[in-house]
TrEMBL record:
Membrane topology, from the record: Multi-pass membrane protein
Record field: transmembrane: 12-34, 66-86, 92-114, 123-142, 154-175, 196-217, 237-269, 281-306, 312-330
Protein name, entry field: ABC transporter permease
Gene Ontology biological-process entries: siderophore-iron import into cell
Localization of this protein: Cell membrane
One of the Pfam families matching this protein, by short name: FecCD
CDD domains linked to this entry: TM_ABC_iron-siderophores_like (cd06550)
GO cellular component, one term: plasma membrane
Keywords associated with the record: Cell membrane, Membrane, Transmembrane, Transmembrane helix, Transport
Family membership noted in the UniProt record: Belongs to the binding-protein-dependent transport system permease family. FecCD subfamily.
The keyword Signal belongs to this UniProt entry's keyword annotation: no
Length: 336
């Protein structure tokens, strides 16, 4: 597939421009919505806070929401890029590893067993644990048997575990209406209602995931040539794949725990990045971080205006955007 940016200078300039766009998107997310604010008001909320409704909304709602959207979007995009490299499946995303389903099942199970005694922070950690355990289970199932891990085995294992976890989640929610009501807002995927305390608990894990992903970029480039070629060049394939799974757990698990199962970001953004810069993961990783952040911040901003004065959860907005994109990918692959 041809790509648009060939030289290092072109890629660097576009990446810097994308960072500028991200800053603009974050500022717009802070200032625009059901209530619009001036930029000076946002600055005053931190420089000379006076306890007014405007300052409270900016500090406690808009700024955390924009920050969460940026980190979650970038993390889901990188996780999707890594999973597509691991499974060699262009439609791979965190959901293929059962991340979403595992996190949802653990949260609903906790609500079913213990009732609404958990705070949001505690539910967030429960979701992170569920996502992590599910990803490890899929990795072990995909590595079992002769030949070790293969793209087909991982894909089938992920689909089976995700379907099983989703079925159990539905069963628990049918049995206990309270669990249904408590979990519904989280399950639909949203970046609203989070504060900086929630973000600061998860963001360090996401940043660590970004760093490890970039450190794996050279190995991912070799793996794209095939496992046999990578082995002949000295790559320890098993350890590289285990590292990929670890990063996916950190990024996708952390993102899902913080914002719920937001779909399609991990599918859309890696394809856009590869279209722009090709298959060099030393560039795909930083591009995915920035473009994923732009995408989710912009989607969250757009979702505020779709049904004003009500807000559409960002998970719905990304699904509306993502479905036509996936159809386009499938049609293009069918004609290759």
């Amino acid at each position: 597939m041809p790509f648009l940016l060939s030289s290092r200078i072109q890629k660097s300039v576009v990446l810097v421009a994308a960072v500028a766009v991200l800053i603009v998107a974050v500022v717009a997310s802070i200032l625009l919505g059901l209530q619009n604010f001036r930029f000076s008001t946002a600055v005053e909320a931190y420089v000379s806070f006076n306890g007014s409704n405007e300052h409270l909304i900016i500090k406690n709602a808009r700024v955390p929401r924009a920050i969460v959207a940026a980190f979650v979007g970038g993390s889901l995009a990188v996780a999707g890029a890594l999973l597509q490299a691991l499974t060699r499946n262009p439609l791979a995303s965190p959901s293929i590893f059962g991340i979403n389903s595992g996190a949802a099942f653990m949260i609903v199970l906790s609500l079913f067993l213990f009732g609404p005694v958990f705070s949001f922070t505690e539910l967030m950690w429960v979701g992170f644990i569920g996502a992590s355990l599910t990803a490890v289970m899929v990795y072990m199932l995909g590595s079992a048997g002769r030949g070790g891990m293969s793209p087909v085995k991982v894909t089938l294992s992920g689909a089976a575990v995700a379907a099983f976890a989703s079925s159990l989640t539905s069963l628990l929610m049918l049995i206990d209406n309270m669990a249904l009501e408590e979990a519904l807002n989280w399950l639909i995927g949203s970046v609203s209602g989070r504060d900086l305390r929630h973000a600061l608990l998860i963001v360090p894990y996401l940043v660590c995931g970004w760093i490890i992903a970039w450190m794996l970029a050279g190995s991912l480039n070799l793996m794209s040539l095939g496992d046999d070629v990578a082995k002949s060049l000295g790559q320890k394939i098993v350890w590289v794949k285990a590292g990929i799974v670890l990063v996916v757990v950190l990024l996708a698990g952390g993102a899902v725990a913080l914002a719920g199962p937001i779909g399609f970001v991990g599918i859309i953004i890696p394809h856009i990045c590869r279209y722009l810069i090709g298959y060099d993961y030393r560039w795909i990783i930083p591009y995915s971080i920035v473009f994923g952040a732009i995408f989710l911040v912009a989607a969250d901003l757009i979702s505020r205006f779709l049904l004003m004065p009500k807000e559409v959860p960002v998970g719905v907005a990304t699904a509306v955007i993502g479905v036509p994109f996936i159809i386009a990918i499938v049609r293009r692959k069918a004609h290759e």
